[in-house]
Amino acid sequence: MHNTQRAPRPSALALAIAASLFAISAHALDSPLAADAYITTASPATNFGAQATLNVGNGALALVGFDLSTLPPGTTAAKLVKA
User: Fold this and answer.
1) How does DSSP classify residue 22?
2) What does the alpha-carbon distance between residue 83 and residue 77 come to, in Å, rounded to a whole number?
3) What's the half-sphere exposure (Cβ side, CA atoms, 13 Å) at 1?
């Protein structure tokens, strides 16, 4: 006969307290689209920025640019989690 003991499970309250102690401040910010274009290997010197669509695949790459002036002062790439 084996005598096994289960480790006590943390209560929901204990988990909530631990989560609040280690909470990280996160802010979601929007940056408006400022420009877009696509380029293609078939015409590498041509900028297709005036086109109504962005092509991707078969040698085409889409490029987008955002107005980052809406970000708080001191924001650096190292502080970004997801772009």
Assistant:
1) T
2) 10
3) 1
